[in-house]
């Protein structure tokens, strides 16, 4: 599948580590869902990752992108919630010490497909387009 990936990091030349090309289709763990991405956006987090901030080099290559909307395996139009928390956490997920966002610990959304916990899928409002 086509994806935008961070393959190396440079504080001085962050775009030198940006690669666009083929990546294997992601595997879908139990409780997770595959989404065919119809819309995604750049986030400043992606630039920080390319600069080597917040994304350890041992996690490379990493598909970038936190934000996406698309169609799940059941044909539902969905918006992807980018924060991935511990499924056993109770309370405000932003306080979960094991939380992460797409493209930090999990492959991101600047790809033809993204895999996320099923609980991260929200129905896309009908009046919101993919364009």
List key phrases describing it:
globular, 10 strands, Quinone Oxidoreductase, Chain A, domain 1, about 130 residues
Notes on the structure:
By secondary structure, the chain is mainly β. It has one helix at residues 44-51, and strands spanning 2-6, 18-22, 32-41, 62-63, 67-72, 77-80, 83-84, 100-101, 113-117, 121-123. The chain contains 1 helix and 10 strands; from the N terminus they run βββαβββββββ. The strands form 3 sheets. It has a 5-stranded antiparallel beta sheet, with no helix packed on it. It has a 3-stranded antiparallel beta sheet with strand order 2-1-4, with no helix packed on it. Strands 7-8 form a two-stranded antiparallel ribbon. The two termini are 21 Å apart. The mean pLDDT is 96.
Ordered list of secondary-structure elements with their pairings:
Elements: E1 2-6, E2 18-22, E3 32-41, H1 44-51, E4 62-63, E5 67-72, E6 77-80, E7 83-84, E8 100-101, E9 113-117, E10 121-123
Antiparallel strand pairs: 1-2, 1-4, 3-5, 3-9, 5-6, 6-10, 7-8
């Amino acid at each position: 599948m086509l994806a935008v990936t961070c393959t190396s990091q440079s504080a001085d030349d962050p775009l030198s580590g940006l690669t666009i090309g083929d990546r294997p289709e992601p595997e879908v763990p139990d409780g997770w869902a595959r989404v065919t991405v119809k819309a995604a956006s750049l986030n400043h987090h992606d630039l920080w990752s390319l600069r080597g901030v917040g994304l350890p080099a041992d996690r490379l290559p990493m598909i970038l992108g936190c934000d996406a909307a698309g169609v799940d395996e059941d044909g539902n139009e969905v918006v992807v919630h980018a924060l991935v928390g511990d499924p056993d956490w109770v309370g405000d997920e932003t306080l979960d010490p094991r939380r992460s966002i797409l493209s930090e610990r999990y492959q991101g959304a600047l790809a033809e497909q993204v895999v996320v916990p099923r609980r991260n899928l929200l129905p896309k409002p009908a009046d919101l387009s993919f364009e």
